[in-house]
Amino acid sequence: MAGSRDVVKEILQTPPNDRTEDDIRVLQGATGENKFFLTQSPATHKECCKCMVLQRVAKEEVLFSQGDHGDSFFIIHTGAVSVIVNGKQVAHLDGGAAFGELSLIKAEPRAATIAAAEDCELMKLVKADFDRILAGDTGHQMRRKTEFLQTLPLFSTLPPSELEGIGSTFLLKHVNKGKQLVREGGPSDSVYLVMTGRFKLVWNKQHSEHPDRKVPKYYTVSDVMGGDDALHDRPHTFSAFSTEDCEVYVVSKEDYLQVLSKEEDHAAQEEQKTVVAKL
């Protein structure tokens, strides 16, 4: 066992570009039972093994603190760590355990502080590499898009096969913190589905359609921005600025109106089935 650990450690210290196919297979074997990698495609798992590196943490050293920006995922190769929430230890993790996966998936702040309970060697995968890998995995991108769309009330009644067809034209857009996505008075030729992050909405004038607009409003995950303006074929009645790094799906006005029509048709069909069932 110690010998295999040494082999894994040696590979992790080898520059990624210098690793052989045999090296990658060793890392795949060492991480194959990890729950996070079990949810990924074999191709994604392999690419992640090409990028993982070794990070050493000394006993009592804090790896990261609760609330920190998360940008990496870890698997404990040797040693153990303490998981601390609000100043209290809530868990103890040792060899083979993993933590930080939400930072790869959702870029969420760290939910806990991680401190080394003893000297540790960790397998580390950074979000920049993971995002690059997933960008090349079209199957993963489609699954991710479909799963997200199913969380929105507008799409929740549509079957996955229909969602895949509709969603194929939706474009994923990354918006850096502090950037403007929507301009008040601009054409409402697109609707935005917020997948990650948060946007602050502001407006310079009062609109009769929204007389209650007196304070800034925030749109966050699963919110639809610009839908009302597109539906009523009017210029945008607000401006939107990202308060953090965000991801949105950009939907053309035509596609959005088509989705509304499909949703109404599906609802009518379900209502008809209910009526028939009661006959």
Structure class: alpha+beta
Strand content range: 25-35%
Spatial ordering of strands, largest sheet: 1-8-3-6
Uncertain regions: pLDDT < 50 for 5+ in a row?
A: 266-279
For the biggest sheet, the summary is: 4 strands, antiparallel
Mean pLDDT: 84
Question: Strand tally, please?
Answer: 16
Task: Determine the number of helices (DSSP H or I, runs of at least 4 residues).
Answer: 10
The helix content, as a percent range, equals 25-40%
Order of helices and strands: HHHHEEEEEEHEEHHHEEEEEEHEEH
Rg result: 23 Å
Query: For the terminal residues, how far apart are their CA atoms?
Result: 68 Å
Architecture overview:
With 279 residues, the chain is of the alpha+beta class. Helix content is 36%, strand content 27%. It is built from 10 helices and 16 strands. It has helices at residues 2-12, 21-31, 35-38, 42-51, 101-105, 127-135, 138-149, 160-167, 227-231, 253-277, and strands spanning 53-57, 62-64, 72-78, 80-85, 88-94, 98-99, 113-116, 120-126, 171-175, 180-182, 190-196, 199-202, 217-219, 224-225, 239-242, 246-252. It has a 4-stranded antiparallel β-sheet with strand order 1-8-3-6. It has a 4-stranded antiparallel β-sheet with strand order 2-7-4-5, with no helix packed on it. A 4-stranded antiparallel β-sheet has the order 9-16-11-14. Helix 1 (2-12) packs across helix 2, helix 4 (42-51) runs antiparallel to helix 6 (127-135) and helix 7 (138-149) packs across helix 8 (160-167). The chain starts with a helix and ends with a helix.
Which characteristics define this entry?
279 residues, alpha+beta, four-stranded antiparallel beta sheet, 16 strands, elongated, disordered C terminus
